Queue: 4 jobs
Job 1
Amino acid sequence: MKQYAYYPGCSLESLGKSYHLSTLEVAARLGIEFKELEDWNCCGATAYFPVDELLAYTLSARNLAIAEKTGLKDFVAPCSACFKNAYTTNKYLNSDPDLAEHINYALEEDNLHVAGTMQVRHLIEVFVEDIGLDAIKEKVTYPLNNLKVAPYYGCQLVRPRKGNENVENPRYFEELLSALGAEPIEFESKTRCCGGSLIVTNRAAALDMVEKLLQDAVNSHAQIIATTCPMCTVNLEVYQSQVNREFHTNYSIPIVYFTQLMGTSFGCTPKRLGINKEIIPRALEKSQVEAV
Amino acid sequence: MAVEYPFSKVIGDMMYASHQNPITDCLQCGTCSGTCPAIEYMDFSPRKIIGMIRANLKEDVLSSNTYWSCASCYHCTVRCPAGIDIAEMMYALKRYSMWKSQFKEGLIGPDFSESFVKMIVNSGRSYEPILAATYLPKYSASAIVQEALTASGLVFSGKMNLFPKKIKRIKNLQNVVRRILPLGETS
């Protein structure tokens, strides 16, 4: 059984609990084990960088150091913001010995040392690249036939650039959805920002950004939007009713984590995928009925 | 005699890990502005802000809401033909403005960031309700009611915990933080 160091991040303990549940359930079905890091701390999200850069990298470095101690090779984060922070920190630890020395001096206080040797991965990359679409297809017992899904990548899963990958038009989410039997729509806004923490600091701007995404998804005939990040889910799902009030619209489009779609197609029970925790009621069940 | 440092250099110095940023290579092509999803809510577009930084218009830059309206989506960064990490530059402006306590009045961003850092230093994890307490006073009464309704809905649906978590080695984490910020507590 392949093992990964798993960093859930703070959101998966509260607002994104269903993401956590469905991730573990799907992993078990695919024969991989996510070992949660001991005593991990917050990655700093986007709110730490405005205060102190070095401290922001040190926070993520502590998690990387704890992961390195496990002897496992991959550091897996399901939240796009956690992923981006860990990825960037790891990159700088490798390219900047001066920064690494500063950080390690601080980490001595927790008896830790970071070398920058982890491979930092987002959850969806592990499924698509390591498990592979063929192996995923084999597990599908209830194909999501005719379900039109908007694959919403969001920002920090694809940006900033990691290598030579296509950041303007990635396709792996669509391919994954097709493997589940679903029909991925051509979603023009798939890598457009949901507003992130502007939902707190500049509500009007964030609601506007959410509205544009919902509008594009609905106009492209999506029945459901699938996400790869708990922050995107909060903005699109929890604030959908505020968007409706603000813009006099009538959106009622279910937002699900891609892992919930995987689990559903594998025949996992809704409860084990946290599907009863949706804000927009009976979201997935409704679409399933329509799909049948 | 003190030498006047160009503002572009000052902001470049706020980007330690990325070893500055070629702000002065900007072509003023406007790709960043055409890309930015938050531009309608900014006093000046990203292109203008870069131009203003280069023109040393420090006060005008700092008193704008532009950099606090950046959602850090990095779309401008990956498209910039001059290789400027514009989203990172917005962070640098935020840091400079926090450091100098100089920002446009009425913004929630600076308070939010400060509360966030305090929360992590206190518990090691982030927890939404504690954060809410710090920024809600800036909202109107009806917005607060709206926010409370959303929050209670989240608790009842099982999405949100009622109590925050604390990491085990929080004392160690606090000492780690003290080695970075020698003054210790962030305030």
Note: Chain B touches chain A through 66 residues (CB under 8 Å).
Job 2
Amino acid sequence: MITRFITDVTTRFNPFSPQARSARLFLSFLPPNARLSGVNITTQLLPRHSADPPTLYVKFKDGKEMNIDCTKTNIKSIVEEVDRHSRMLQKNADLADG
Amino acid sequence: MSSRSLRCALPRNLVAPAVSGTRIARSSAVLLLPSSAPAPSTTATPTRHYATAAPAAPGARLSLPPDYIPPTTPPTARPADTRKSQLLRSYTSLLRSTPLILIFQHNNLTAVEWAAVRRELRLALAAAAPQGSEAAEVASRAQLQVVRTRIFDVALKIVEFYDPSKVQPSEATTITGKRVKVVYNHDLSKAAYKAVKAVSSSDQPLPESSTYAQISPLMVGPLAIFTLPVVSPAHLAAALSVLAPNPPAFPAPSKKKSPGYYDPIAQSGLQKLLLVGGRIEDKVFDQQGIEWVGKIEGGVDALRAQLVYLLQSAGLGLTSTLEGAGKSLWLTLESRRSVLEEEQKGPQEGGDKESS
């Protein structure tokens, strides 16, 4: 996953719900130095019997915001969706550099 | 031929620790040992020789029964000499022996961050326990370890759904060719495999009351577990204040007391640890539940004292109530008796006066 262009990750989930799977896996995909390289990561754990759906909010350097519905999308499609935008930013950055 | 030279004939597929953990019924295991075997045909040569190497004389060849199963290598459903199988065994024994397990998700901690987190944890636990006491012993045996999620998941299933005591004995051949009954009920056995498979492949969902059904949603992603050998709220509170501080009840250690905690490496490590749940004495708790356990002041002893006090005071009330009924009855009867006595006395006294 390309994480260079992500500035904010906010998740909120109930770990006891099977739907929280993709949100939790997304957190584990962030690199070890994500916080040092300027990504704000906030995680809120919901109590065990809460029925709130898990949320995942991703913000990019260009200001684009993504609210991903974790209940239906699996981790693969989330990564795909995030990468689609990241690749575009990567392309722009490469062109600006070159 | 001595039993020593016979022992050399045993294949050594399994390493020693794998052997010690298997729960073959002891008596039958003894039957399988070569020491119970009478010495086979006399050897012509008194020299030392090994069965694994080429035997000295053709007449002295030691032949094991074709279906002989060495007691050190009981049959297994999973390959016994792989790291995964041995990890599974270590997890099952951990789950059976540890009453308190906190489950964390760790998101890409580096080795130095792990070291810093463990250092701070050890310091906090040591601060919670006075030196040389039982509490210090508990603190020294607390540990934070990374687990393989899928293997841990299987271990949870084995611990809950497999009962080793209900395994039927099977037949095995001793070194002399005798048939004996042996129980193969270790955690890698076919019986354990079948029991777990039956649960996971059955169509109906697991019962809500089972621990595994409650804890299985947590078994996702990279996991680490914090284990304590006893349920000790004091140690739990110390660990929580380091690993998952929650200010009013479990404040993070102060900057003055533990400057290492505010080290950037330790902080970035702790930020990546996420307390997702826990298992305390076979019950599943979320973060609030764990904090509730951590808040029990004085630990189990205090709870016991509270219970004793409650029972004692209830007993006192009960005795006084029961006593009260008896007392009032006694009082009533006593007053009645005195009345009757007086009545009896009255005419008698009058009669005496009349007679005199």
Note: The mean pLDDT of chain B is 82.
Job 3
Amino acid sequence: MLLRKREKGQDKAAGAGAPVCREETGARRAALDGEKSARAVFFIAAAFSVVAVFAIVIYLLVASIPALSEVGFFSFLFKSKWLPKFYEDGSRPASETFGILPMILSSVVVTLGAVVVGGLLGVCTAVFLVYYCPKKCKGAYTQVINLLAGIPSVVYGFFGLVVIVPMLEGIFGVTVGKGVLAAVLVLSLMIMPTIASLTKNSLEAVPNEYYEGALALGNTKAQAIFKVCLPAAKRGILSALILGVGRAVGETMAVAMVVGNTTNNFPTGLFMPVATMTTQIVKEMGYATGLRKDALIAIGFILLLFVLVINLVLTLVKREKMGGNALRGRKLKAQQEEGAQKSKAQYAFRRGGIVQEILKYICMALAAVVIVALAAMVAFIIVKGVPNLTADFLFTAGSSTDVTMPQLLVTTLLIIFMTLIIALPLGIAAAIYLNEYAKKGSKLVKAIRLFIDTLAGIPSIVFGLFGNIFFVAICGGRYSILAGSLTMVLIVLPTIVRSTEESLREVADSMREGSLALGASKVRTIFKIVLPSALSGIVTSVILSIGRIVGESAALIYTAGAVIGMPDGYGSSGMTFAVAMYKLTQTGRAGDMEKAYAIAVVLLVIVVALNLLVAFLERRIKRKARGGTGGEKRRAAAADKAHEEAPLASPAAAQTSQREITV
Amino acid sequence: MKKKLLAIGLASAMSVAAVGAMAGCSGADITVSGSSSVAPLMEVLAAAYMEKLAADDDKSNDVEIEVITSDSGTGVSDAQNGRNDFGMASRDLKDNEKGSVTPKQIATDGVALIVNKSVTDVTDVTGAQVYGLYANGTAIGGLSAAISREDGSGTRDAFDGLIKSAEGAELADLEKFADCVSEETGTGAVKTQVSGNAAVLGYISLGSVDDTIKTLKFEGVEATADNVKSGDYKLSRPFNIVYTAEDDLSDKAKAFINFIMSAEGQAIVVKEGYVSVI
């Protein structure tokens, strides 16, 4: 309102001063109107994420109310029997037949196990990578970790199914290797790259002086690392672990393949077959009608609450990190100095740090284990899969009973196209609002960012449920590629907003000022000057989104469906690569497993290709930034920023790596 | 400003809705609803029939068939209330349903008990033994673990209703399986488990049996299509379609039923792993 008044005043002044220019003033007013509506459009796009989060929460809540009220909230959460069939045949009341306690506990146990194992592996890998890895292999190792973070979860699940489960049966001599332990191991492998990459960022953000100071005080290298650097990066590591919790608790397909899936079992043993919240949903959703479907959605809602709480904790941890770390660092240093002095005095003749030396070797060993395990996974899939890439499978059109590559490719491409057509303008506009229009650091921007982050943290099975009760319902209750695409829009939107925003931030202010000074309107400046300079960032976000869509399975199986055959268009149902892979391991007609291997290879190849593309683009951006106009200033600004942020375990770095994970 | 915002909001909401509505919500010529066990077969039959009619140049006889999955009871009540052309039920009609609707059996679903090919000490099992393994974890020879399908699967539905203890308790009445029972969400996953593990008993639809696993006799009878047809093999159940009366069926629905019962339709039944009725 204030803005408008000032504009009016200006107009008046202009009118009074130079009546000749009245026509021009009208044009200006029109331009201003245009400006305002442009601003409004950008704002709506930015607010879309907020709307989406609310829509998901409210829709799931409303859809679960019938179940929650019929069963009773506490009966639902704390009764230990899930027996819908007895409710459906009328022999027992709802309050006795819809208890999900075993699933909640199974989810918690599997998640915690995965975070302990995966966290240990990830942190050790990061320590190795930052401090012990020879310079030559460091780049390659980092690339490998990034690549692993991009491998779709179905591939991890498949590896678990065909390698880890039989291996466990062999080692422990159990009849069936599926169960809690198998799920923990698969999830650990899956979240390890994420944790490693985030931990690496926060370790690298620990000021070098800490390390050098510790060495100068007579510590060994291992002591400096484990007693100074690692504690200094504690917050960053903690947020990496929490992010790992969020991923593990929401993972569906990979867990469903190895966890044993028996409803109503409590996770009382390593090889107990259990059903987690997510696997229960994916297992029964296809059949469920009536109250059972409502109850499954209610499980999704409870899962959503879990994840929202985890997100909140993550935000709090990050915020605290911003506030107190500089001081903490200083205090830590003082403490360390004191400790070092003491130890120097006390153990003048002992080299000391035996514990840290041991830790060092443990780290190296675990880093080696990680790389060997993951290399084994990739090698195994390629060796078993490549022979199955037959011309028949790759090139024949297939039929409604025969899965072949062209139909999967067409479905995947259709979804990619429709998703990007909608999500890209929306995401870019949102990023423009956040970076070009909104007041930096205002509460509104913070709120919108919070919602975008929340959206990014919601598990894909929850998106799948939302898509099922919203988009599929709109489409007349039928699974369709369109419903799948619309669901995917919500999933890739945060990636696009964040990635675009980041590249917009890179565009030097002098370019904007120059354009405005030459008389261009703000909208014109954005579209003609700012966006073209940020193009490579936008392209990166497109690639990341494609990666996400290609690897997605849980969100698509109950929105786009899993029908075999060439899709007719957006109205028909169809399978993407990842969904087909999951389905093939379940249906098991002759040759299906071989096809699953072949698809795994294709997925790996796509992930590698997309990763290389991103790496290439990022290098180009960097080179451009160094060479281009305003590079000097930007570099100086970047240096300033780096300096400023160094003790804060660099949120910017954390953001980059978050982008990497979402691939 | 506010109005404009509202207008833009409305416009975007409408475009989303319009895009959604485009997703094809056309009415079908024949609507079939009911049992989730019969539905997968019905979908394949419907697809084959539609494809057959669409293959000629004559567009006038093309049909659109919609298969809605729910359960047998809903299929029957939909048929009673005229909410479909005919319903699907994976069981015989109950007494209270018998007067108002007519059943017609289109296929038989047989369930085969499968084990690893290396298993030699167990070849024939009784219902009570199988019940003991699933309910109490009592091993049958070397078979000490078992696999079930997920709740909602038609095969599980049949299996749980047909396996009874010596006292007559059905698996279906059980609250919880023994700890040695894991669940798989597909025939393939069951077969993979069994073919890789000599201590596991599983069950699959008779038509999905292949040479990667071997079947067990049930109460002395070999699991074959002929034994299912003759009724000697007890692990089987009918797939019925139900309608109020033959005369009430539309011509298009009648033609579709004729297709299902024809040699061509029954060949599809066999191909999908069920036992034909002719």
Note: The CA atoms of residues 15 and 21 of chain A lie 7 Å apart.
Job 4
Amino acid sequence: MAKWRSWLGLAPASIIMLGLFGSSLGYGIAQSLGWLPFLDQRELSLAAYRNVLVGQQLGGQWWSALLFSLWVSCAATFGSACICLGLLSSIAERQQHYRGLSIVSNLHLAIPHSVWAMALLLMLSQSGILARIGFAVGWLDQPKDFPVLVRDRWGIGIILAYITKEVPFLLLIGLATLRQQGRAYLLVAQSLGANRWQRLRLVLWPLLAPSLISGSFLVFSFIFGAYEVPALVGVRYPEMLATMALELFLNPDLQARAEGMAVSMLMSLIILAVVGLAWRWREQR
Amino acid sequence: MSYRKLVLLLAFLLIVPIAIFLVYAFAQGWFFPALWPERWDSELFLRQLRDPQVRRGFEQSLVVATGVSGLALLLGYPAARVLELQQFRGRGLIYGLFFLPTVVPSVATGIGLNIVFLRLDLAGTLFGVMLVHLIPVLPYVVLTLGSSLAHYDRNYEHQAAVLGASPWLVFWRVSLPLLLPSLVVAGVLAFLISWSQYVLSLLIGGGKIITLPMLLFSAASGGNYSLIASLSLIFIAPLLLLLGLVARYLGSPATGATPRP
């Protein structure tokens, strides 16, 4: 009786999740294998994957999008993790509660990525606020003297948008750990004569590393597959995998759908591999 | 950096974008490289507020996000209770089921579901969009309620039950008041995830459902800065309002708000 009742509570949410997620996965795989019933095409093949990975037209695009996605995700993840660690190390020793920081970081998480990216565009574009200030101060003579920081070919705008957005997320993850155990250890180390650098390296880092590293893996996998920010403050070339996948899928040529699916499947596979590695690493510790 | 300074810096970084949007939305004749607009005018902003397309986007976003929050709480609360308060085999598997959609990109789930929803005649309907929004929303509701239930003492419920309260009365008079902060925060979280969703709405809404993010995207490709700023303000105003109302709950671990990249 108790068993049956307990499953009753869990069933609706699980069934809906499994239904939506499972059918999305099933149809995604089927279509990437060329099963396109609306084109009366029901033969399965690996043609779409072949086109994407080594095809004449798409092959180059795939590899450059993969490299660009890796570059943007790694740079943004590494940048936000370092900033977060620096900030936490500067406040960890003097603080007992983190209420204010946790409220303001949560508020940051509430700003949608798309809106955040737009703010960055208005701020940093060649006719944006910073360029106007630079002009007024006399550093520039015309808009094109201002460096291209958004919609640039190195993805600086995308990386900046993500770093500023992910630091509060990682702060919250780190605070959850610090709140549980941080201060006492740091005070003991201090009274035993450890200097600041020793406390960071021998106390704070070992405490924060597990949660901060798992948080960074989440950040990486999010950035690697997200569409909004690169679509808004990126350029058409080089582009990220998510924008490549969606563009192929929305292509009026319905044959391109299978290729869009293949790109999105490969992209998800990479993310799942990264998350799986992170999970195993955590289990082993 | 001192703690106070860090909190102030982060608060400042929240105010800057809003200030930028306000300036761009209400400035008139503000040509490069002028540092300050010639004059201020609310005409363009008001025109956006009155625009039928914007109104429709706002209404449909509101209907979808409210519906999704309600649905997610209704589905998520019993699920979180079972997951957090009971031991059973396969618990890890169910957790995995709720964790996976948080890492698989919505581009991938969206294009996979596009055909499914077309076949079920759910594409282009408000209900279809709500349903697909459950994929990113439901996991966070379950995780948030779950981590708040970890701080929850179930003995209050047993006590009420021993004293003869019906299950419904126990929920209404004991569980609900105790868990209210967490339920409210989970509802707001659900609302804002749905409100910000672009890719899934686009792929399932099929051009028939217009939400605010879609209008922002089309404005962004147009490149009219004051239009972008006006839409951004309209976009974030309800979020700021909601968050302002629950901000005091966000600082406490017992509320369980699960952070999201």
Note: The first strand of chain B starts at residue 27 and ends at 28.
